[in-house]
Amino acid sequence: MKPLSPFSSPTVYIVDDDDAVCDALGALLGSVRLGCEAFATAENFLAVANREMRGCLLLDVRMPGMSGLELQRKLQELGIMLPVVIITGHGDVAMAVRALKAGAADFIEKPFNEQDMLDRIQKYLKQD
Questions:
Q1: CATH of residue 95
Q2: Are 99 and 86 spatial neighbours (Cβ–Cβ below 8 Å)?
Q3: For 50-102, how does the pLDDT look when each residue is reduced to its tens digit (9 = 90+)?
Q4: 109 near 89, Cβ under 8 Å?
Q5: How many CA atoms are closer than 13 Å to the CA of 14, on its beta-carbon side?
Q6: What residues make up the domain containing 73?
Q7: Structural domain count of the chain
Q8: Which of 41, 52, 54, 113 is deepest in the core (most CB within 10 A)?
């Protein structure tokens, strides 16, 4: 996926250590001409994150190193206010509640319905 400037059209940022998930989301977003950029770790995303970014963030919970929920908290501390959609294959009600109370816009379990995912992403892109 081609990296996009934070000053171009809104971008969907994907932070997930599973290459297959990143590839599938990239293909899905590309099918409707949405720009995306994928990162294998929270730390990789944090290295480029800034307040000028526009779009939304699809964020896995369980990753090596910093977890998705830790990244979400760190972005808030830095004043980076991208809408966050938590995606996980290992979620439970308590985790969803924690994520939403911490400011996540949404919480989606894997596997997800593609059209539902696109609808939600479009909603958050418009809000941002």
A1: 3.40.50.2300
A2: yes
A3: 999 999 999 999 999 999 999 999 999 999 999 999 998 887 888 889 899 98
A4: yes
A5: 26
A6: 43-112
A7: 1
A8: 41
